[in-house]
User: What shape does this take?
Amino acid sequence: GAGVSQSPSNKVTEKGKDVELRCDPISGHTALYWYRQSLGQGLEFLIYFQGNSAPDKSGLPSDRFSAERTGGSVSTLTIQRTQQEDSAVYLCASSSQAGSLNTEAFFGQGTRLTVV
Amino acid sequence: GENVEQHPSTLSVQEGDSAVIKCTYSDSASNYFPWYKQELGKRPQLIIDIRSNVGEKKDQRIAVTLNKTAKHFSLHITETQPEDSAVYFCAASMGSYIPTFGRGTSLIVHP
Assistant: This one.
């Protein structure tokens, strides 16, 4: 596609339910990142996928959070047993990473998650 | 890991004034420093970036400076306009690794 696409754009869920957030990166981009943005806050790193390498999960806040990237393209972020503090905008970004150089990260429009 | 500090958290200026946002980083190996602009309700978008082999880069009304010795970099916006109002994020990364973002600066330009 023309840009990074995320779905759903908005999700309201009850506390304790599981949710899945989807990210479709720009075709050909090998790097994919998930960030979380709470109201008025910065971008909190969650997880990073680069090509076929093992993902960097160092930013995941608890074991209720997990993510996968199938076939090096689409990624799904799963939050189990959601809590109210999980409410935030979840942003996905992808980049091409030319060789060993970092390049521009293109962000999706985000999924606004509200846990009630 | 990398730690990026960004100041100020809020900046209010009159239209036509200049605005300066400053960031510091901790990892001397970081070599890529992008700046993103996020308008209300929209996604962050890159506005300018700089690599560690240069000290300054300019694009029309915006410029970024980098001081590798002091490990700080700054965004300068001249002749500010109301449409410059947004949240600005700095970031730092090394090689192909994950960008670490600052906490953001909310810039308000009063007409």
About this structure: The two ends of chain A are 33 Å apart (CA to CA). DSSP finds no helices and ten strands in chain A. Chain A has a mean pLDDT of 91. Residues 46 and 70 of chain A are 18 Å apart (CA to CA).
